[in-house]
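Q: Focus on the shape:
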Amino acid sequence: MFIEVLKSKIHRVKVTQAELHYVGSVTIDEDLMDAAHLIENEKVTILNINNGERFETYVIKGERNTGTICLNGPAARRVQLGDIIIVISYASMDLEEAKQWKPYLIFPNENNRLS
């Protein structure tokens, strides 16, 4: 049996951009991606602290050390600039592996950067 468990979490980052007329996805500063062990095109769930929205999209690599968090395409309608979001991804693994698993959790500062 396989179950889904939390793999990665970027906790409480600020939305810096929203680009409605774009194919779709979330652009994330590559430093944050590396720290959270996220890869380009990985499926993620976005949780918007400000309005309670919860939706899925995929990751696009953003420029390093910029703090970029940009929701693109239809996802842009689910956020406002300055909203605080959580980005999470899951992994599928067998029950015994899941019992030992430790997720990658990062807590960026108010400028979306690692301290």
In short: Residues 2 and 93 are 5 Å apart (CA to CA). The radius of gyration is 14 Å. Residues 30-36 form the longest helix (7 residues).
